[in-house]
């Protein structure tokens, strides 16, 4: 196991053995970010669901009020008017047959893929490429739609997808450390509300078992979150 550097250890020694209030935790990770780049603020949840059960899987999206601070590269599988609308809305790559072949060959230089319902018949065949990377368009996340312009605009504005892993954990980026504290808090609260809203009806007991915030290279702090 790799050892942490001196700066990380110094910050870790400042962390109290307690559950932090949101503003206190976010202020801490802002103040104690040590990397030479603008680190991403991330929140990780340990949820009280059984990911082995199909009716307790969690997948959704959240539109961050102040954006993610990251330029999102959006690809759109579409033809005709839907393709033209996507281009006008600022999509980075738009196409169909040629684009299908390019992605089939392993090209995945994009962050989000959008597709029209008609295009999905062929896009589904790219499951081996898109699936493992979490890039497959999905109606539940608003990325399978005829309104390609709206989907592109939302992705560019800071819509972020989240998905439960096989261990019952879920991690979501919610901004940059350079953001003002109020903006980070509002983005964080939007993520918590979205994850809370995605709670499966079959989930029992405590839903938010643990919530931790951190920066890309920083120490994690446990934050109090109400079910």
Provide structural commentary:
The protein has 227 residues and is α/β, with parallel strands linked by helices. Helix content is 30%, strand content 21%. The chain is built from 8 helices and 9 strands. The chain has a 4-stranded antiparallel β-sheet, covered by helices on one side. A 3-stranded parallel β-sheet has the order 4-3-5, with helices on both faces. Helix 3 links the parallel strand 3 and strand 4. The protein starts with 5 loop residues before the first helix and ends in a 5-residue tail after the last strand. The model has no long low-confidence stretch (mean pLDDT 93).
Outline of this structure?
This protein has 227 residues and is an alpha/beta fold.
Name some characteristics of this structure.
227 residues; alpha/beta; four-stranded antiparallel beta sheet; three-stranded parallel beta sheet; 8 helices; 9 strands
**What's the total count of β strands?**
9
Low-confidence spans: none
Major sheet: order of its strands?
A: 7-1-8-9
Helicity range of the residues?
25-40%
Q: What's the story with the biggest beta sheet? A: 4 strands, antiparallel
Give Rg in angstroms. 19 Å
Describe how the helices and strands are arranged.
Elements (H helix, E strand, L loop, with lengths): L5 H7 L9 H10 L8 E8 L11 E5 L10 E4 L2 H9 L4 E3 L1 H8 L7 E4 L4 H4 L3 H4 L17 H10 L1 E5 L5 E8 L4 H17 L10 E8 L5 E2 L5
Parallel strand pairs: 3-4, 3-5
Antiparallel strand pairs: 1-7, 1-8, 2-6, 8-9
